[in-house]
Specification:
mainly beta
Length: about 170
C-alpha cells in the first residue's frame, strides 16, 4: 500500500538561531503530531521531494507551531526549508471507530436515503456546535450537513460515499 500523508503546516520562517521552524499550523492535533521522537516529513511541492525528520521539540502560540527537528541546527539551515510543507503519515490503526480524516471526506459523493446522488463534499467546516459538511451541487447553491449521527447514515471512505438523512429545508 502506498503511504498517505497529512498536511500539518507550512514552514514560514526560521524562529530562532537553533534551527527551529516557524510553522503555519494546519492541524488540530499539533501536540500529538509533533511529539518528541516522532517522524515527520518536509515536503517541497515543486520538486516533489520528501525528507524524513525526527522531532526534537515543539511548542505553539495558537496560530503558529515552533518545531525543532534533529539535524537542522542553525537559522540558516532552517531558512533553506522556508515554503516547505510538513507532513505526517496517516495512521488509520490509531483512529477510533466512526472517525475520519477531513481530507478523506472531501470528494465523497453525498447520497440520500434512496441512493440518489445529491452532490460532493467540498470541504469540512468546523462550527462551535459540530463539524459540518459543505456539499457542492451542480448548478445549485452548496448545502450543509451536520456531521452527526442524526444526519449521517453511512460513511464508506473506500467507495467515497456518504449517505445522509435529508430533512425539510436542507436542500
Amino acid at each position: 500500500m502506498q503511504n498517505e500523508y497529512l498536511l500539518l503546516g507550512y514552514i514560514t520562517d526560521a524562529f530562532s538561531l537553533d534551527g527551529t521552524f516557524k510553522v503555519l499550523s494546519k492541524t488540530d492535533f499539533a501536540s500529538k503530531r509533533y511529539q518528541e521522537g516522532k517522524e515527520i516529513f518536509l515536503y517541497q511541492a515543486n520538486t516533489k521531494q520528501r525528507m524524513t525528520c525526527i522531532v526534537e521539540s515543539y511548542r505553539s502560540n495558537g496560530q503558529f507551531d515552533f518545531v525543532k527537528v534533529q539535524g537542522i541546527n542553525s537559522k540558516e539551515e532552517a531558512l533553506e526549508f522556508k515554503g516547505y510543507e510538513i507532513h505526517a503519515l496517516k495512521d488509520y490503526d490509531s483512529m477510533d471507530k466512526d472517525t475520519y480524516y477531513f481530507v478523506d471526506l472531501v470528494g465523497c459523493k453525498v447520497l440520500d436515503e434512496k441512493g440518489q446522488e445529491l452532490g460532493v463534499v467540498k470541504e469540512v467546516e468546523e462550527f462551535p456546535a459540530q463539524l459540518t459538511l459543505r456539499v457542492k451541487r451542480a448548478g445549485k447553491e452548496d448545502f450543509f450537513v451536520p456531521f452527526v449521527k442524526a444526519f449521517i447514515r453511512r460513511v464508506d471512505i473506500n467507495k467515497k460515499e456518504i449517505e445522509i438523512n435529508v430533512i425539510g429545508g436542507m436542500l
